[in-house]
Amino acid sequence: MIRASHLVIIRTLRSARDIFRRFVAMALAAVARIYTSFEYWLIGDKHARYGLAVARILLGVVVVGTVLTNLPTAEYTFGGASAWTGQQESPGSSFATIWPFSVIFGASRHSIMLVMVLLIICGVLFAIGYRTRFMLIAMFVLWVGFLAVNPLVQDQSDNLTRIALIGMFFASPSEVWSVDALRRRRFAPHPGRSFVVRWWLFQRVLPAWMTSLSHNMAVIVIGAQLCFIYAAGGLFKAQGAPWYGGYAIYDPIHTAQFGTWPELSAFVTGWGPLVALATILSVLVQVAFPLLLLRRGTRIFGLSVILAFHVSIAVLMGLPWFSLAMVALDAVFVRDATFRQVIDVIRTSWRSAEGDHAHLPADESVSGTRLSIASSATTT
Amino acid sequence: MTVSQTMPPRPEGRHRRQRLAIRGAVLIALLATAWHLFASFLWISPPTPLRELVPGNALENYMIPWYGQSWSVFAPEPINGDYALHVRALVGDGDGEEAEVTEWVNATAIEQSWATHNLFPPRAAGVSVRQASKLKEAWSDLTPEQQKTAELNYFKSENWLGRMRDTMLAQGGEKGAVISYIVQERYSDAYATQVARAVWGDDVIRVQYEVTRQNVIPFAQRNDPDATRPDVQHTLTGWRGLIVMPGQDEKAFAAVFAPAHDSYSEDD
User: Fold this and answer.
1) What interface predicted TM-score (ipTM) does this complex get?
2) What pLDDT, in 10s, does the model give residues A11-66?
3) Are A328 and A345 found together in one domain?
4) Is residue A38 part of a domain?
5) Minimum-distance CB partner of A44 among B8, B70, B247
6) For the whole model, what pTM was predicted?
7) What pLDDT does residue B191 have?
């Protein structure tokens, strides 16, 4: 009897040890598999190529738009007329004393118009993706130096655009929808020999895994930055009485500073339940933003609500460029597959429109092209 | 979508060494990114004991100035009132015989007229409203006795600002608060001087400015046709001498401000 129970105990122990070993091996294999597939994600294809192209185009528009908006009052806000702010004497912004931004800061006093014209040129070339990385550096220096001139009129979107441009420096925002991409395709049949020639002709000088790694890391950093902004912004709001009282959006749009369309502000806040819905949604969607991104359905919902809010902020609060900067970066959360689908729809309808025109009298061919739109839309 | 479709081909590399180099580079990039994300998380979220994980000043040294940011915008409570900087002046007749005190001019409202009903407001519309709130903020940090001093007139001789500072410092309280207030008085005065000269010309002898704050109609009363905005709060400051900051382009200031003042007064 004693012997038999002994055997059972030994057998149980052995089996337990074996089970433990197997579980450890399974766990290690799973971790290794996850790590390798993550590594492939990082060094394989570049992700969010269209999203970053959209971000590039829209940030270029933000820079050009901001400059054009402020052009008539440039001297007043950023030029010699603003010396009363004391900024030239003791600058409030750290960038005012950091080279090369200090050069732009110093130039603002006498040559603010030159700074603004250069910003427009760089902004346009950056938006269309001409020599993108070079333009990014030039625009970054001008932009950050320009914004340092008068901290009285800075807002958080200036920090956002600066941080986003640093991120984009490590990415390839001109893979698609850019002059660079067109030129890369044009020069592809004539590979250059030397490093410099290849670089100038947009041909590969670094191994693909290296540029992909840098690009995909930048995508992660920009995406995380936005998640932090939204989640923290939502949590900061949640502690305020007007936010949990459900009327917070009423207050700022009735001030002169943030209510540039007083009649519209009064109109949209007249009905209490709508005010409450917008207030609650803006807190909840901001806090939940990172989680909403996880699934396609909730991602579409989250991004749509955020887009609607930025449109409202742009119009009601008179902050169009702030809003556009946020929207620009939200584009990195839209998958390349979705952008390609959109392109396909546009391309097909463009082609069929040509077909309609060519065979206008023949009803049959018109209905034929319509059919092809319908079928192509369902297959993509 | 299957895994094989999304997964790129294995990295090329005949040699084991190259594969190791790639793995090493990925690890380094991962570590650098992890640090950046952790630092950003700590910096953007409200301060917690989690920050103790980063030794010394490393977090601030990493984040400032490149990643400086603060996202408690319109939080915890969004702005619910208007700050404004008002200016009036004592203006001579040119011969130095007679002088007259002008009406108050709401410089902030004049600037804000560039933004109202404009889809693309210039940042110029927010210059003096920010200066007004800075002056008000600095004033709030003074002791009641020092605030009384701010109400007095200071304009005689060149060093009137220094005399005001010394009087306030002698009244106790925090030295830093006095210095901050004097700095904001200086900038506000330099702004008021520009406004006064743009509106009333070169014969301005001295200026007076005040910050007002008026809240919006409370949400609960928004649909009441008889509701009026709450009372205006005044931050009174006495008469002051003129200050022109070095490098001030007075013509450029007037060229932008004077036309706005004229069209704003016509609308009234």
Assistant:
1) 0.91
2) 999 999 999 999 999 999 999 999 999 999 999 999 999 999 999 999 999 999 99
3) no
4) no
5) B8
6) 0.90
7) 98
**A7-21, A182-196, B122-136: least confidently modelled range:** A182-196
Number of H helices, E strands in chain A: 16, 0
Task: Kindly identify which residue of chain A lies nearest to residue B3, measuring between CA atoms.
Answer: A37
Mutate to test the interface with B, among A47, A71, A84, A170 (most CBs of B within 10 A): A84
Interface contact A240-B23, CB threshold 8 A: no
Three-state DSSP state, B204? strand
Query: Strand, coil or helix: what is B14?
Result: coil
Give yes or no: residues A48 and A153 share one domain.
yes
Angstrom CA distances, B44 to A168, A188, A234, A296, A323, stand at: 20, 44, 12, 27, 19
Degrees to nearest 5, angle at CA B56 with B51 and B58: 80
Q: Residue with structure tokens 């297959």?
A: A379
Q: Has residue A173 got a pLDDT over 80?
A: yes
Q: Are residues A316 and A345 in the same domain?
A: no
CA B177 to chain A, closest CA, distance in angstroms equals: 18
Burial classification of residue A163, based on how many CB atoms lie within 10 Å of its CB (0-12 exposed, 13-18 middle, 19 or more buried): buried
| Residue A79 is assigned to a structural domain of this protein | yes
**How many structural domains is chain A composed of?**
3
H or E element at residue B105 = strand B105-106
3-class secondary structure, B99:
strand
* β-strand partners of B105: B87
A252 shares its domain with A174: no
Asked if the Cβ–Cβ distance from B109 to A75 is below 8 Å, we say no
CB A81 within 8 A of CB B249: yes
Domain range for A113 is: 43-205
Q: Is the domain of A196 the same as that of A344?
A: no
| Contact: A252, B194; criterion CB under 8 Å | no
Give Cβ neighbours of residue A20 (< 8 Å, ≥ 6 apart).
none
Burial tier of A345 (Cβ tally within 10 Å: 0-12, 13-18, 19+): middle
pLDDT computed for residue B14 by the predictor:
64
Cα–Cα distances (Å) from A123 to A62, A115, A133, A210, A324, in that order, read: 8, 12, 12, 28, 14
User: How confident is the model over A219-243, as pLDDT tens digits?
Assistant: 999 999 999 999 999 999 999 999 9
Cis preceding linkage at B76, omega within 30: yes
* Pair (A138, A157) in one structural domain: yes
Cα-flanking dihedrals φ and ψ of residue A89, to 5°?
Answer: -80, -55
Exposed/middle/buried for B95, CB within 10 Å: 0-12, 13-18, 19+? Answer: exposed
| A245 and A352 fall within a common domain | no
